[in-house]
Amino acid sequence: MSTNEKQPEAIYDAKTLGTGKVLILGLQHLFAMFGATVLVPAITGLNVSTTLLFAGLGTLLFHLITGRKVPAFLGSSFAFLGAYGLITASGQNIPLTYSSFGVAVAGLVYLVLALFFKLFGVKKVMRYFPPIVTGPVIICIGLSLAGSAINNCRTNWFVAIVAILVVIACNIWGKGMVKIVPILLGVVASYLVAMVADPAARATLVAKVSEADWIGLPVIWENTAFSIFNKDLDGGMLLTAIITIAPISLATIVEHIGDMCAISSTVDRNFVADPGLHRTLVGDGVATTLAALFGAPANTTYGENTGVLALSKVYDPMVVRLAAVFAIVLSFCPKFAALIVAMPAATMGGVSLVLYGMISAVGVRNVVENRVDFTKSRNVLIAAMIMGLAVGVTYNGSIVIPIGGVTISLSGLAVGALVGILMNAVLPGKDYEFGTNEQGDTAVNFGTRANKP
Fold first, then answer.
1. Residue 385 to residues 123, 137, 138, 414, Cα–Cα distance (Å)
2. Deepest of 46, 51, 220, 442, by most Cβ within 10 A of its Cβ?
3. Residues 284-293 as b or e (16 or more Cβ within 10 Å = b)
4. Could you count the other beta carbons within 10 Å of the beta carbon of residue 264?
5. CA-to-CA distance for 261 and 259, rounded, in angstroms?
6. Which residues sit opposite 400 in a β-bridge?
């Protein structure tokens, strides 16, 4: 990664390009983030308009906190998909509002790690979150979600297969923007096929879109995390959501660091040093907490938009901020949100099946590119315990811990992550050092394509 602070000659800024081209570039960034960002609320049941609003606001907040230096867009995080649809040990569904509060707390973990990075430096802190821990955790995130994708695919396998084939084709043979937005194109193609092949789906779409208003507020109080704090608050359920979801942030923090390294490499400016990882983590964490409190998914820096930077050679952060403004404007259109809500289950199933598999593949990539030595017994044991607990507990019910009058349920992913972190800290032989392997450091990305072009 270059530490040269001088902008390369090939870069164009907004002042050089003029208003017309800048608007087009802003729309291109909106188009790049769009499919993945709205897919998360479509899968989880969160509000699409709220998601777009806080993707835009989160991006602008991130730019403000980082001194308007980093050309990053913050869209919906796939890593937190498992945070929604949680159930307690008794089989009771945890409402989305409780899960949102858990995600908000996960965002605060970013701030704690940012403080540690500032006080002790990146290398010392990252020794406790090496690839032998984060890799298996990421693998288990994807595996724990795959079952829900199959259930959606079963509603219409033909429509689901169309989505899968389009995503694969765009990833392998696509050029330019086609390669950057395969998820969006898969959704559109599968959606259109479903409308033609399924009259019932077409009727549902027409009904929902016609009933929706053109203009409306994107935030609904009942969907926010604030709404749970009333006389009916379930303390045990709230603690379960927090303890289950917060550990996911340990994987997404590593993703964030990889994203910053990749964006730095693309733009040829060292954002790890200036504005610094402590500032970018604060920006990402605050944006995630704010979004979650108001009922939107967690935010994360988007590899798709890094691809647009590489494609356009326009690295001016103002263009990305313009895309954020477009997202905010679009969030005030309920009719558009209705179009997303009416998406056929098979379309979501096909796209999410690829997506969940890619999340697990990212975990494998993280382990491979960091050359984790599995001839060492400590590494084998850590990986074995993480995956054994994460998968085993997931398919056999949560671990129940009664504390006073409150009952806490720990998911497999939470148990596996916590045990893995503790084992890595206690067992001798920690040899991972962040910064010595750039390819490994950038190997964590939950987006739809690799950050690095």
1. 25, 10, 14, 12
2. 51
3. bbbbbbbbbb
4. 21
5. 5
6. 409
Check residue 440 and give its pLDDT. Answer: 75
Percentage of the chain modeled with pLDDT above 90? 40
Tokens representing residue 187 in the block: 């959704």
Nearest to 344 by CA among 184, 204, 161, 139: 204
Is residue 162 within 8 Å of residue 189, measured between CB atoms?
yes
* Peptide bond just before 275 cis, omega within 30 deg: yes
> In the chain, what's the furthest Cα-to-Cα distance?
65
pLDDT of res. 451: 43
Q: Categorize the per-residue pLDDT at 332 as very low, low, confident or very high, splitting at 50, 70 and 90.
A: very high
The secondary structure of the chain, three-state, reads CCCCCCCCCCCECHHHHCHHHHHHHHHHHHHHHHHHHHHHHHHHCCCHHHHHHHHHHHHHHHHHHCCCCCCCCEEECCHHHHHCCCECCCCCECCHHHHHHHHHHHHHHHHHHHHHHHHHCHHHHHCCCCHHHHHHHHHHHHHHHHHHHHHHHCCCHHHHHHHHHHHHHHHHHCCCHHHHCHHHHHHHHHHHHHHHHCHHHHHHHHHHHHHCCCCCCCCCHHHCHHHHCCCCCCHHHHHHHHHHHCCHHHHHHHHHHHHHHHHHHHHCCCCHHHHHHHHHHHHHHHHHHHHHHCCCCCEEECHHHHHHHHHHCECCHHHHHHHHHHHHHHCCCHHHHHHHHCCCHHHHHHHHHHHHHHHHHHHHHHHHHCCCCCCCHHHHHHHHHHHHHHHHHHHHCCEEEEECCEEEEECHHHHHHHHHHHHHHHCCCCCCCCCCCHHHHCCCCCCCCCCCC
Residue 1 has pLDDT above 60, yes or no: no
C-alpha to C-alpha distance for 253 and 38, rounded to whole angstroms: 22
Report d(CA 73, CA 433) in Å as an integer: 28
Instruction: Measure the CA–CA gap between 383 and 100, rounded to whole angstroms.
Output: 29
Tens-digit pLDDT profile for residues 263-304: 887 888 889 888 999 999 999 999 999 999 999 999 998 877
Give the model confidence (pLDDT) of 432-448 as tens digits: 887 777 777 667 777 65
184-189: long-range contacts (C-beta < 8 A, 24 or more apart)?
184/31, 184/34, 184/35, 184/36, 185/35, 186/35, 186/350, 186/351, 186/354, 187/35, 187/39, 187/163, 187/343, 187/347, 187/351, 188/35, 189/162, 189/163
